[in-house]
Design brief:
about 425 residues, alpha/beta, Aspartate Aminotransferase, domain 1, Aspartate Aminotransferase, domain 2, three-stranded antiparallel β-sheet, about 40% helix
Length: about 425
């Protein structure tokens, strides 16, 4: 029995979000378009038109061309696709030295995919964040080497909600590309001059192996961002971006990978011509329409949503400082998603039991990312480098509030936390 009313507070929006009513209505209507979009009969053509309309609408929100939007099964697939796509492009061309720059606090779908390539000789530099959970753009840029094929840095962290300086990183990478482009043009002019001299001398001259100065490819995992941050890709200065519908009140089982036209990348799978040959599987019009409507809803209400949630978050932080001794807020309290409150509690013995206790009291939250299994503590909190509090990475609780959660809801959570700390 809970110690007050039997109300429920769902504070795990970073794990997944409820389907928005507007999205549900659009999907119900799209359910009539059940035919295969690749078919040439009337039903197939209608399904194809609806699919492409969804793609166009999504592209408009993101500020890209419709042919740069690829529907996937979700964020994990999108992340794996762009990493493998870019790296395989290099490896299959016989490039022996391939390097990647990422961060130590990326989502597990990024880190695990990079580990696969490390086992095959790809070198990866993992940049740590500062104590506030934010990486320095300069550290990312300084880690780039002449043979860096890919830089991938998340937009907003899924555990502690910290917002990374993606646009600053992207601008720095564009500067590097511009400098390489200038050097490449100079080298190409020298190559042509050597070819002319060799031909005049009657000697064969092989072309200098030059690569277009369009690397490294810059990718950002923006799965946690759309409800709170602008995801127009040009503003982020990114070449590729991952999105996931169920993180923004859309359906599970659909996401998108946005890739600009100049990027060379191999498909993750073979077997069909769907998604312009990049994802061979029959598309779901219902899911694509659901993704697009969720993206539109997130975009349209973002300013009001962010402003309200920011006030409630500030109140939550104040209440933690006042009422929960032995607690540490993880990550910057300013540069973070406005619904994210991640804390470490010194005086709890088992964080999973703490989650179950809070669940029994009517509060749904989590300890760390729902995609992490088999680890007792959070690698994201470990990366903050707090050696003075060894319990910090283990004793974490993550509350990610609904956009319309109130201060009264926060009071309810604080009262439960006070009981929890006294209990343990």
């Amino acid at each position: 029995m809970t110690f007050f009313s039997k109300r429920r507070i769902y504070a795990d929006w970073a794990a997944t979000t409820p389907l928005h009513p507007r999205v549900a209505r659009v999907m119900k209507s799209a359910r009539k378009l059940w035919a295969n979009p690749s078919a040439i009969h009337k039903e197939g053509v209608e399904a194809k038109k609806a699919l492409e309309a969804a793609r166009t609408e999504s592209a408009r929100v993101l500020g890209v061309r419709s042919e740069e939007v690829y529907f996937t099964s979700g964020g994990t697939e999108a992340n794996a696709t762009i990493i493998q796509g870019v790296l395989r492009t290099w490896l299959e061309k016989g490039v022996k030295k391939v390097h990647v720059v990422s961060t130590s606090i990326e989502h597990s779908s990024i880190l695990e995919t990079l580990k696969l390539f490390e086992r095959h000789g790809v070198k990866v530099t993992y940049v740590d964040p500062g104590p506030d959970g934010i990486v320095h753009a300069e550290d990312i840029l300084e880690a780039i080497q002449p043979h860096t094929a890919l830089v991938t840095c998340m937009y907003a962290n899924n555990e502690i909600g910290t917002i990374q300086p993606v646009s600053k990183i992207g601008a720095g990478i564009r500067k590097i590309k511009a400098e390489r482009s200038g050097r490449a043009e100079t080298l190409e002019a020298r190559r042509r001059e050597r070819e002319r001299a060799s031909q005049q001398a009657g000697d064969a001259c092989s072309a200098l192996p030059l690569r277009a100065a369009d690397f490294p490819v810059f990718h950002t995992d923006a799965s946690q961002a759309p409800l709170w941050l602008s995801c127009e890709i040009e503003g982020l200065r990114a070449d590729a971006m991952t999105l996931d519908a169920h993180k923004m009140q859309g359906p599970k089982g659909v996401g998108a990978l946005v890739v600009r036209r100049h990027v060379s990348w191999e498909p993750l799978m073979a077997g069909g011509g769907q998604e312009r040959g990049k994802r061979p599987t029959t598309e779901s019009v219902e899911l694509a329409r659901g993704f697009t409507e969720a993206l539109k809803v997130a975009h349209e209400g973002r300013a009001a949503r962010e402003g309200f949630a920011r006030g409630v978050q500030s109140y939550f932080f104040d209440q933690i400082r006042e009422h929960i001794p032995g607690s540490i807020v993880n990550g910057s309290t300013k540069n973070r998603l406005p619904n994210n409150i991640n804390i470490s509690l010194q005086h709890i013995s088992d964080p999973e039991m703490a989650v179950l206790f809070l669940d029994n009291e009517g509060i749904a939250c989590s300890t760390k990312s729902s995609c992490i299994h088999g680890e007792e503590d959070s690698y994201v909190i470990r990366a903050l480098g707090d050696t003075a509090n060894p319990w910090r990475a283990k004793n974490t609780l993550r509350f990610t509030l609904a956009p319309d959660e109130t201060e009264q809801g926060v009071d309810y959570i604080i009262k439960a936390l006070k009981t929890l700390t006294l209990r343990d």
